[in-house]
Every structure is written in C-alpha cells, then in structure tokens.
Amino acid sequence: MTLAFIAPEPSSPPRFWAVIPCAGVGARAMAAGALEPSLPKQYQPLLGQPLVLHTLAAFAAVPQLAGTLVAVASGDDFLAAYPSLRYFTVPCGGPSRAQTVLGALRALLQRGAQADDWVLVHDAARCLVTSLQIETLIAECQHDSVGGLLAHKIPDTLKTAVTGPGGVRVVGTLERSDKWLAQTPQMFRLEPLLHALEKLGDAATDEASAMEAAGHRPKLVAGGAQNFKVTYPEDFALASAVLAYREGSSTTARFGELAPAKPERGNRFF
Ligand SMILES: Nc1ccn([C@@H]2O[C@H](COP(=O)(O)OP(=O)(O)OP(=O)(O)O)[C@@H](O)[C@H]2O)c(=O)n1
Ligand SMILES: C[C@](O)(CO)[C@H](O)COP(=O)(O)O
Q: Could you report the predicted ipTM of this complex, rounded to two decimals?
C-alpha cells in the first residue's frame, strides 16, 4: 500500500509535533481509593508536581519539537495554573484515547501543521519518559517510511490463562522472543495516522495498531522498563522513587525547561 504525502516546501521541511492525550480519568489507579478522588490520574501529585508536568518537562527539553499539544477533557482548565510557551492545551478529549488523539490531530491541522509533519503521541501517564528517549525515537524514525514507537522487550516468561471456579489458571506458556510491550511516544506522519485512526476507531489502543491495520510495519525502538505507564495505585510510589533517584532532591533543573521562552517558529500558531 502506498501513502500520498504532501511534499514539503523546500524551505519548510516536515516538523515534529508532540501530542499528549491527557483526558482520561485513571479509573484503575483510583480503584483502591489511595489517591485524591477529585483529581484525574494525570494531575495527581508526584514528587511535588502534578504527574503530567513531569511528562511535559521531558518534551520541553527536546529541541526538535515545534510544539506540544496537550489534549484535555472539555472544561478541564487544570493546566491553566501552569502556563508555559512550551505546550498548549486543546479541549479535544474524547470518550476513548483513540478519539482524544484524533481530536488532537485535527486540531494540529487546523492550526497550520502539515499533512506530512511527524507527530509523536505520548501518554500523559508515562511520566518517566526521558528527553533522550524522545530524541532517540526521532533519530531512529525520521528517515523511515512508516515511523515507529518506543517499546520494551518482554523480560519475563509469558503465560496465557483462563479464569474459572478455581481462580486464574495457566493454560500455556508463550514463545516470548518476538514479544514487545508497546510504549509511547509513537511517531507517525500526521495525515496517514489520522486516516488510520479514523478507519480502526476505538479498536486502536495505540497509534501503531492503527498503522498496522493499514498495512504498515512500525519500527520498534528500545525504550526501557522505566518508561512504564502509571496505571495502578502502586505505580505512583515506583514512579516517585525513579524520579527522586534521577533528580536527587531538586526538580529545579528539570522544570526550568518549562519556563516561558521566547516564541519560536514552531509555536507561533498558538
Ligand atoms: N478518553 C481518554 C482516555 C485516556 N486518555 C489518556 O490516554 C493515556 C493512556 O491511558 P490510560 O493510562 O489507560 O489512562 P486512563 O484511561 O485515564 O486510565 P484508566 O483506563 O485506568 O481509566 C492517559 O494519559 C490518558 O489520560 C485520553 O486522553 N482520553
Ligand atoms: C498507548 C499505550 O500506552 C501503549 O501501551 C496503551 O495502549 C494505552 O493504554 P490503555 O490502557 O489502552 O489506554
């Protein structure tokens, strides 16, 4: 299958945009009641900052990015208290992650992004991603015909199971040498990704699955175990410990990246 890309102007090479789906509620994290009930997962405090601010700090330090769109739920003005020229919010949250991302891609196009620009979609809830990982993904994928994603090779023995009267029981052990855990960012050209997500709909739990359904083979780029998605109550303590280990007791340097900066070409639309 071939995909028609709009050829970039000689003076305007494809740009790189980040899209951060940030419109979930975090139902699995909330289940045990350990968190602040009125705050969605992505805004829960983590080492003195809302969780998503850690995510955004990593993207703010990536010089290749023209802008970062944070896709929030309608009426969500939580990030208004954390103004920065390094990101902008759009109230395009949908009932599923796929629909939130679709809204964000359309919003980028409306604001002047081009069909062949690259988009890096990253879960707000993966707050341990590093700027180096994002830059590595860009370097590995920017000359690829499809794009790709960060992923982690399965380190454990992999079981299939059934649930019945005797509890959850193993029915088999799978070959794991070809199995990877999909992470984010996931980096694809804007228009092909938009069309692929429109076609697959909510069955697309990530961008790569939509591109796969469209006949492509996204490139896997090694992420790392620390780039996990904060999903369950115990994940917050683990994420805090990793951040504290990385940063010592000070977050000043990391959050310095979010200080208002002089508008650049990439974010002048916003
Ligand atoms: N309708 C949705 C659902 C999810 N997300 C975002 O997609 C990312 C990955 O989703 P997940 O971790 O599953 O978050 P939640 O959907 O919030 O969690 P849960 O499924 O436990 O409710 C999160 O950053 C979340 O905010 C989104 O923007 N819009
Ligand atoms: C996109 C993703 O993080 C890849 O692992 C994941 O699919 C999103 O998780 P969800 O729980 O399905 O929203």
A: 0.98
